[in-house]
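Hi support team,

I'm filing this because I wasn't sure whether my run with tryptophanyl-5'AMP finished correctly. The job status page said complete, but I'd like someone to confirm that the output block is well-formed before I use it downstream. Pasting the exact inputs I used:
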Amino acid sequence: MAEEQKTGIVETKTVLSGIKPTGELTLGNYIGALKNWIGLQGQYRCFYAVADLHAITIDIVPSELRNRSLDLYAMFIALGLDPEKCVLFVQSHVPAHAELTWVLNCFTQFGEAKRMTQFKDKSQKNPQNINVGLFDYPVLQASDILLYQAHYVPIGKDQQQHLELSRVIAERFNNRYSPTFVVPEGIYPKFGAKVFSLSDPAAKMGKSEEDAGGCVFLTDDADTVRRKFKRAVTDSDTFIKYDPAKKPGVSNLLTIYASMAGVTVKAAESEFAGKNYVDLKEKTAEAVIETLRPKIEAFKKLRADKNYLAALMKSGAEKAAETARKTLAKVYKKIGFIDPRG
Ligand code: TYM
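And here is everything the job wrote out:
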């Protein structure tokens, strides 16, 4: 700050994050990541990606991938990301992601990638398709981050291990050559870094959850949202208190309420003092519905305007590629690759 006053220049740090277009966006994605993305734009130089290269580590129908990528891009804007304030791009439009991944593969130990819990979980759930891409996924994620020299990465808790690996890879490369990559830090929401399933408060709320009743999608209609909250698992007590260890279901509802109503968990707890679980479920459902309603309306309009989205994607890709190319050129030079321009 003192420095800023002296020079009048605000040092602009860089933020990068991504979401894979493999399913509908969930409340977990919104509370755990997207809300932070929106808050960071304007303050930092932000790059946000539709991580479509990551999506093909599972078997996905081409038309579905195309539609989901467009949905996600339109949703970024509808939820409040402003293409004038941040760079919104589709990962496969910037070839440097795949190119840097090859290099970083050679700086990642097999044992490190094997320890990733998401790899273990996904291989267990899908034993017939344990492809090399699934194994390599965290290295691609490291490339996404390191290409932009990101200082900060706004994510939910489930991505922390991947971020740690990105840091290890960056440091290893920097030590082997000379400082090349910024070593990134995660940014997690104060509460809601892990939003749990409404039907199983011990499990993460996730797009691929078998029990769709426990997962609230941003595009769910109002009645579906009400029904899902009505059936949310709580406990046999009757009082409302934030205590994730003893009252995980109620604490999860309080977290969702606080995040959607824009209050702290403490304030939510006092607001519901003396009220019952039905009140908490109903009020939480309404907070979700009311917060999302205008955004979903905006999404529908944007999604219908394919030319507008295509133009934004093109300019986003150009801006992203410009930064990414610079990092890749630096990396190639340090490694000893010959510059084709002589
Ligand atoms: P993805 O697409 O699974 O999830 C996107 C973001 O949502 C967060 N999230 C949650 N946060 C809280 N509670 C939940 N229940 C919940 N579910 C999901 C995730 O932590 C994530 O921040 N590999 C990444 C996408 C990615 C990426 C990147 C992220 C690709 N490249 C570079 C950061 C930087 C993924 O699959 O997230």
